[in-house]
Amino acid sequence: MKIGVLTGGGDCPGLNAVIRAVVRKSDAHSSRVVGLRNGWKGLMDPSPMDLDSRMVSGILHIGGTIIGTSRTNPFKDPAGAEKALKNFKLLGLEALVAIGGEDTLGVAAKLYDKGLPVVGIPKTIDNDLYGTDFTFGFDTAVSIATDAIDRIHTTAESHNRVMVVEVMGRHAGWIATYAGIAGGADVILIPEIPIDLDEVCDLILRRHSRGKSFSIVVVAEGAQFAEKPGMNGELILQEMQKDEFGHVRLGGISQVLSKAIEKRTRFETRYVVLGHIQRGGSPTAHDRVLATRYGIYATEMVHRGEFGKMAALQGSRITAVPLSEATSKLKTVDMEIYGIAKEFFG
Ligand code: F6P
After folding, report:
1. Which protein residue has the closest C-alpha to ligand 1 atom 12?
2. Catalytic residue among 11, 103, 126, 186
3. Can you tell me the distance from the alpha carbon of 338 to that of 299, in angstroms, rounded to the nearest whole number?
4. Same domain, 99 and 168
5. 126 is catalytic
6. Which residue of 165, 284, 286, 339 lies most exposed, with the fewest beta carbons within 10 A?
């Protein structure tokens, strides 16, 4: 069997671990694997890359993706889907493993409906993909953000400052919540709950009235202010221009927030944007294991002919869920976990 594999959307640590697992398991089935470069672009404008055991040797611990990624959306072009299906046939492929988040797997779901034999693997540092308890990449991002918060703690304390730490999380505040809990944040702000500036400042003032001289605020990039003049429910953007899936480029809420906090509380405030550091470098052991399990399971799905589904983690087991279900909505932060974070606010 000849199997194509592609990685789409934002990269994340663990992609190479999945590719390695898919190739090794396919080898055991005497199947061949080719990498389609740069996400769905690899089916629109193919320049495939043969992947054998030798090619994937030594990549388990390496961040990024050896086959490249992009935010290409074949459905942007009215003839795009047909072109992708045609190229799939021309390449002599019999199955495709698509590794991605809501956008990449949304395309996979639509192409499956048009006849593409595809299996999905859930990837995103944001952990907002429905149908799976965890995506790989998330644990690494949380570890990096937690380490950053630990470091920010010491400088915040030395200078008696409020520090606002901005983490990734476009639609969901999973990284903010987990890294905030792990790093002992005093306030955590997420896209799921509009920011009440009065409440944030009250929490900081309360903490400082208890004798603390510094505070750590963790904010997800996609969080929005509620009912504040000039800030009503608006996302803070770096650029208005949208990508092929209609997403604007977020970033900068920590700057706006830190100014507002300093003005109201009169505490010296600084901000830091962690940005793509959260997506780079080596995956944690947890993500290497999860990515490997997904890769092996998805390859088994391919050889069973179980297409139109995504490998998913439910509890401690890997299972298969329909792509249509996984991409039907986003998985927002569990309010029970956020409630635990809130116990430590202020
Ligand atoms: O992949 C998800 C994500 O990391 C989001 O958290 C973030 O908003 C976005 O990607 C950034 O995308 P880009 O790499 O295109 O700047």
Report:
1. 10
2. 126
3. 35
4. no
5. yes
6. 339
Q: Are strands 95-100 and 2-7 parallel, antiparallel or unpaired?
A: parallel
Please give the average per-residue pLDDT across 88-109, as a whole number. Answer: 98
234 pLDDT above the threshold of 70: no
What the block records as the tokens of 151 is: 């470091």
Phi, psi of 88 (to 5 degrees): -55, -45
Same-domain status, 267 and 151: yes
Structure tokens at 264: 């109201």
Q: Kindly state the average pLDDT of the residues 139-144.
A: 98
Looking at the predicted structure, is the pLDDT value of residue 232 above 60?
A: no
Confidence class for position 237, pLDDT limits 50, 70, 90: confident
Backbone angles phi, psi at 201, to 5 degrees: -65, -35
Claim to verify: residue 199 and residue 320 sit in the same structural domain: no
Q: Which amino acid is at 133?
A: D
SS3 306: coil
DSSP conformational letter for 76: G
Question: How far is the centre of ligand 1, averaged over its atoms, from the C-alpha of 343 (Å)?
Answer: 29
Which residues, 6+ apart, have CB-to-CB distance to 133 below 8 Å? 312, 313, 314, 315
Within-domain flag for 152: yes
CB burial of residue 276 (10 Å; 0-12, 13-18, 19+): exposed
Report how many domains make up the chain. Answer: 2
Distance in Å, CA 264 to ligand 1 centroid? 31
Q: Specify if 341 maps to a domain.
A: no
pLDDT at 100: 98
Domain end, chosen from 280, 302, 334, is at 280
Do residue 75 and residue 150 come from a single domain?
Answer: no
Say whether both 90 and 151 belong to one domain. no
Tell me, yes or no, whether 170 and 187 share the same domain: yes
340 lies in some domain:
no
Cα 65 from chain centroid? 14
Full residue range of the structural domain in which residue 180 is found: 139-280
Using CA atoms, how far apart are residues 66 and 253, in angstroms rounded to an integer? 33
Dihedral sign, CA of 229, 258, 180, 105?
Answer: positive
